Here is the input.
Amino acid sequence: MAVALRPSAKNRISFMYSSYIETILSLQVLYDPHHHGALLPWVIRFKEKISPETYREIRYFGDNIREWIFLIDLALDLPDLGRMSFADVVSHIAKMPRETFVFRLLGERVPPAEIEAAFASPANHELVFRRLDITGERRQAEMAHLFEAPEKIRKELCEFLISYWNDYFEEEYHWVELLLVKGVKDEAKRLEEESLPRFLARVSGGLVTREKKLRRAQPDHLIIETPGGPLDVALADLKEIVLFPSLFVSPQNIFELSDGRLVMSYSVPPGVYLRRDILMPPEQLSRLLKTLADETRLKIMKLMMQDRQCTQGLAVELSLAEPTISRHLKLLREADLISSAKEGNYIYYTLRLERIAELHMKILDFLRN
Here is the structure.
């Protein structure tokens, strides 16, 4: 989805979120969960859904493509990324030139000329190893395989992505999308209240990604710190600023600047999404509240506040049949809201005030935890 702000001085900014981005970042979290501490509860829960074979594939591709996060580069420049389905983005990746595919897959750290040379001869693989600081024999062998059979690897990767989305993450994304929409609305509102440089610096959180840092310098400039030195970017030179929320991006954000187009992620708090099981109220609390949500039962409890009651007396008082009163009393007993004692031919019922007094604390405990 892509959302453009209404025309204003900041109309170069648009908000976008993408099923492709969130899917790839979820794979990064599964691959390297210890760098995403706040999402560990999600990892524990979600891993129970996926098969051991799928998790092995997540590890395999993560080990051999320099982490999942670099697959973001395969699609980040698509102007309609926010409107594209997951399958459409994967189809685009499957059709891109192999040199572009490998260049972006390697985080754009290997010059295209060296990639071409590596395709041409195994003797040139060593150039790539040095660029990527790959020293282990196993990793070197896997990287060499990428240049020997790039189409095979791409086909296997695309097939895995479609399988992961269809079998696991598409359903999960329905929940994720709710938080992304909220993230767009919240920041769009804040943008109206802040200056553009201050807004960008705040949403970036002093953004650090791939050895780059974004800092605010002057009201009309941004300073991007890179390994080659600081880069001064005038806001007036930016033709488009695309911001996208992500549940899975923290702590490593996404940041790209090319041809006057700045694309930047910002983190959305996971909130109660981390443990959907805590959204379910305890069975006892649910039963208690459902029992109370009835006018007749509330009247019965009101009468019991005055004195103990029997079925026959309640029937007269409320102008209802005794079997009807008995059904209501049965529900109140099952919810442990009343107690009973038999005297002669009658059963008398008494309201358990302590259960009523505990109710507000049980509700608060559920809402707080």
